[in-house]
Design a protein that fits this description.
By secondary structure, the protein is of the alpha+beta class. The protein contains 3 helices and 10 strands. It is globular.
């Protein structure tokens, strides 16, 4: 019985693929094929050192820490996974980011989770050719379940260094919440 369900499912998938027009097949192939923006993200693969400056709000002095992260291409270079490690505010910090470029909507996206919470941050980004940087914007939720806005600017200096600036708006206006200076190990 199980084999019958699998064979039936494969038949319908195959039939649907064969029913596609040439135009639809080309659009799908373009959608699934890594392109120039994925090649640009490929330059982030490797091991990195990070100097982290963090502000809890606009009126407090920053804290600083050092960290490392490793970026790997996954799923055939369509997405890039970065694992972050640091000691922040006297506690071990681990974070995981998935970043990619959606050929369909022509935008970058990032998804972030870490051990400083159980929520997530989702950002969409646009590439600026003139500055060779990506500006992301999106939302997350705080420890009270309240939504906040986040803006992030990724500004590579070259293929071996750059700066990430993050700005947070918790409903009282945007402030610079983090700056990460990164260098390739």
């Amino acid at each position: 019985m199980k084999k019958l369900f699998v064979l039936t499912g494969l038949f319908f998938i195959t039939f649907n693929l064969m029913a596609q027009t040439q135009e639809e097949m080309k659009a799908w192939q373009d959608f699934m094929t890594p392109g120039p923006m994925h090649q640009m993200l490929q330059t982030t693969v490797g091991d990195w050192n990070a100097e982290i400056t963090m502000w809890m709000d606009a009126n407090t002095p920053p804290t600083t820490s050092k960290g490392t992260y490793k970026t790997e291409a996954i799923l055939g270079g369509r997405y890039f996974q970065t694992k972050h490690n640091a000691n922040m505010m006297g506690m071990p910090f681990e974070g995981l980011q998935i970043i990619g470029y959606d050929n369909g909507v022509k935008k970058f996206f990032a998804f972030w989770i870490d051990n400083f919470g159980t929520g997530y941050l989702h950002l969409d980004g646009i590439y600026d050719e003139s500055t060779k940087s990506i500006t992301f914007a999106g939302t997350g939720t705080d420890q009270y379940g309240k939504e906040y806005k986040m803006r992030e600017m990724v500004k590579p200096t070259d293929n071996n260094s750059g700066v990430i600036e993050m700005y947070t708006d918790m409903g009282k206006g945007e402030f610079k919440s983090m700056e990460i200076k990164y260098t390739r190990q």
